Amino acid sequence: MDNYQAEINKSKKKPYEVLTLASMIEEEAQRPEDRPKISGVFYNRLKKKMTLDSDPTVKYARKNFKVQVLYKELKYDSPYNTYKYPGLPIGPVASPGEESIKAALKPEPSGYYFFYARPNGQVIYTKTYKEHTKVVQKYRDEWQAHARKS
Predict the structure, then answer these.
(1) How far apart are CA 91 and CA 18, in angstroms?
(2) Alpha-carbon torsion 49, 63, 100, 10, what sign?
(3) Is 54 part of a structural domain of the chain?
(4) What is the mean pLDDT of the chain?
(5) Partners of 123 in the beta sheet?
(6) Structural domain of residue 31, as residue ranges?
(7) Does some domain include residue 134?
(8) Which of 48, 72, 104, 134 might form a disulfide with 21, Cβ 3.0–4.6 angstroms?
(9) What residue ranges of the chain have pLDDT lower than 70?
(10) Inside any domain, residue 131
(11) Rounded CA separation 116/96 (Å)
(12) 130 in a structural domain
């Protein structure tokens, strides 16, 4: 974080906010090229005061790190749960690497508000909830199959 202090100051974000966002990016992205894109989605959602809906925050809150998060678990009451509470969680949910810190400071601008990560590492970005729902319905079973293999 020390290497990025000037950028943090310029961003007008507190270091813990950058670290918290970077931790979510770290857990969400499987591929380096997705880190700035996922960061951009989070920034778009923050600007609109939307919930961030990040599965890793639910896993961290529940201290249950299994592959798949179930719908009923999204209601778990914790200030870390970004499905339940808007904005960033109260602190980091993982230890982010340098690339995630960079992505938290330099999000890729886009019109996307949603993303869906497939078990194969592909991330599908969408602009509307309707588009996102179609993607989830199309690929949801992949995670169930992946969980059975794990």
Answers:
(1) 10
(2) positive
(3) yes
(4) 91
(5) 117
(6) 2-110
(7) no
(8) 104
(9) 65-67, 70-71, 146-150
(10) no
(11) 20
(12) no
